[in-house]
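LOG
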Amino acid sequence: MHIDAIDRRILAALMADSTLTSERVGQKVGLSASAAHRRIKQLEDAGVILGYGARLSPQARGNPTTVFISVTLVDQRRDTMEAFEAALREEPLVTQANLMSGEYDYLLKAEVPETDSFERVHREVLAALPGVQRLVTHFSLRSVIVDT
């Protein structure tokens, strides 16, 4: 799908506030409500817009500590990586996972609620994932930029 300047403005408006009605999006980008609705639907159908969601406050998420974990696997065989990734998808504490180039295999972002201990998460969750050889953990002091 070709994305033009109006589509980009629509996307920017929805990234800032996904609850905007088609009428409000149209007002922001200079389209009628029906034209804005049609364009939004096209962006959704083309897979440009993957979904909508709510950003929850830290309190609603249990005042989590954000932890970044670099993971080195025992090997990089397809079955090892697939088993690791499948297990990650089942772990709700892991909010992001990236296959990396360089020194380690994966970089994970986890949110550990204040009611849980990282020692338990490290021992019972992360170290128990299939194929893990080494974990290196970094605790976030605060978020400087949070994208939507």
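LOG (cont.) second protein
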Amino acid sequence: MDFVGKRKLWYLLSLLVIIPGIMAMATQRPPLNLGIDFTGGNLLQVRFEQPVETSQVREALREFNLEQAALQPVGPNEFLLRTPVLTEEESTALLERMEEKFGSLEVQRNEKVGAVIGAELTRKGLYALALAAVLMVIYIGIRFEFLFGIAAVVALLHDVLVTVGLFALFRWEINSAFVAAILTIIGYSLNDTIVVFDRIRENLRMRKKESLEELVNKSIAQSLVRCINTMVAVALALLSLLILGGDTTKGFALALLIGSLSGTYSSIFTASPLWVDLRNLVRERKRAARAKVRRATSP
């Protein structure tokens, strides 16, 4: 398969996914559907005397428009709820309604919580991401070459934009688990990209008369089975967690599933073709500079 020759198609497919997400973040208010980890809310822990299912508690929450609240079983007939900010009257009404539906209950905890992450920590997280990108460029530049580092970081940004954009587009909730998923996606995507780059580097050492595009196509083909097998194994585990896991893990599993699929795609169809474009661009500029010098020194 001519991976590099069709790179404009791969770039277009990426843009068709990324641009709607960016537009959604630019036009929607708020840009992202932030959970109470970012906005603050109430923390409520209750224990029922009678057996109660998670779906039943979720149904009671729906009566108060709290179906998106994080609901986590923490023991036999005991649940931990994280809801948006509730007044004392709203909290009392919710407890009375659950007691009316499910029998007597014991309130283990009922308190308001501030934003776990907040604007300052979010800003520091973005700074940390920028610093990590710079350090990765330096590390990959030392181990491989500078252009490999640039292509790898662009591929990482591609995966982050795909994941965040889809969450913005479909208004899926973003919480602290989502931040952990993004960091995991960055590590996973970089690992796949390095595998392909390492194969390119090895083939460059043994390069004969083949063009750069042919060499990269061969390198991707040699790494393709490994990348796909890894992606399938990860996707099966995440699908199981997404389908069978609780409500509190679904957002995390969904973000990881999107990011891992995007990471495999970008490692094959984005990072390596982009490296070819960058290398050709540098070569053309050097050639133009040499031609300019020759013209300036010629009699």
